[in-house]
Amino acid sequence: MFRLTKDFRFEAAQTLPSAPPGHKCAAMHGHSFKVEISVEGEIDPETGWVYDHARISAAMNPLLERLDHAYLNDIEGLENPTIELMCVWFWNKLAPQLPGLAEIVIHETPKARCSYRGSLKN
């Protein structure tokens, strides 16, 4: 079993409306997000690949166009855009298109990230 990971980036603004009163993240702020999409599978003996990276990009590009330089709270399903809930949002959008989806990692800063190995049930 092999795992391929492809990285993507986008810039966006957000507020966290469910943050405790006085928490700095309740105010509008922005991040330079990094998203890692990982798929797992066996090597195809014909191509020598586990997965075509272009397939991952094709699934991600419409999502990135929607998110880049946007206010995340205005996007359906991201009204409370914590990185945990963003992982679930990405998973639900990508899993039907990317068989073998294994993990999504979202970095909101160079030192803070969340990983998710979920399912469509969330």
Q: What does this entry look like structurally?
A:
The two termini are 26 Å apart. The chain has 122 residues and is α+β, with helices and mostly antiparallel strands. 22% of the residues lie in helices and 34% in strands. A hairpin with a 2-residue loop joins β4 (101-109) and β5 (112-116). It has one domain (2-50, 71-116): 2-Layer Sandwich (Tetrahydropterin Synthase, Chain A), CATH 3.30.479. The radius of gyration is 15 Å and the shape is elongated. Strands 3-1-2-4-5 form a 5-stranded mixed beta sheet. The mean pLDDT is 95.
SSE layout and pairings?
Elements lengths: L1 E13 L14 E13 L11 H15 L2 E2 L11 H12 L6 E9 L2 E5 L6
Parallel strand pairs: 1-3
Antiparallel strand pairs: 1-2, 2-4, 4-5
Keyword list:
single chain; 122 residues; alpha+beta; Tetrahydropterin Synthase, Chain A; 2 helices; 5 strands; 34% strand; elongated
How do you describe this structure in short?
Helix content is 22%, strand content 34%. The chain is α+β, with helices and mostly antiparallel strands and 122 residues long.
